[in-house]
Amino acid sequence: MNKSFIISIIAMTMSFLTAIGLVYQSYKTPKLGFVKSKELFEGYLGTKEAKAKYSKNSGEMSANLDTLTQQFNKSLAEFNTNYSKLNSAEREEKKRLLAYQKQNLDKYNEVVEDKISEEDQKLTQGVLNQVNTFITDYGKRHGYSMIYGTNLTGNIIYGNETHDLTNEVLKELNAQYKTLPKE
User: Fold this and answer.
1) Which pLDDT value is given to residue 1?
2) Distance of CA 103 to the CA centre of its chain
3) Quick one: 4 and 67 in the same domain?
4) With contact defined as beta carbons under 8 Å apart, do 148 and 32 qualify?
C-alpha cells in the first residue's frame, strides 16, 4: 500500500472520530439539578441576619408609633374627662387640636408602614440577589447546564432526590456568607 493512501485513511479516520465526538457532545445529557427555593432562602444565614435587622428597625418604628398613639389616647381621655368643665369655645378648640393630632398620627402611621414595607422589600431583594448570584456561580463551578428552583406555585412538582442540590448549595452558601465582611 501506498504511504499517502495510509495517511489519507488515518486522516479520514481522525476526522470521522472528531465528528462523532462533536455529535456526542451535542447530544450529551445535560447536567441538571434543582434547589428547594423556600428551604434555601429560609436556611441562609443572610436571610436570618436580614430578618433580625428588619425586626429591630420595624420594632423601633413601631415603638415610636405606639408612643404617639398613647399620647393621643391620653389627650382624648383628658378631653372626655374634662368635657363638662370646658366652655363651648374651649371644647371646639380641644376638638380641633385632637383632630389635628389624630390626622398627624394617621399620616405618621402610613409613613411608618410604607417605610417598613420598603425596608422589608429591600432586604429581601438583597438576599435573593446574593442567593441567585451564588447559585449561578455554583452551577458554573460544578458543570451544571441548568439549576431549577422550586416555588410555591409548582415550577417543579417532583424532582428525583439525586438531583436535589438544596442542602449542598445551602452549606456552601452559608460557608461563603460567614467569610463576608459585616456592615
Assistant:
1) 60
2) 35
3) no
4) yes
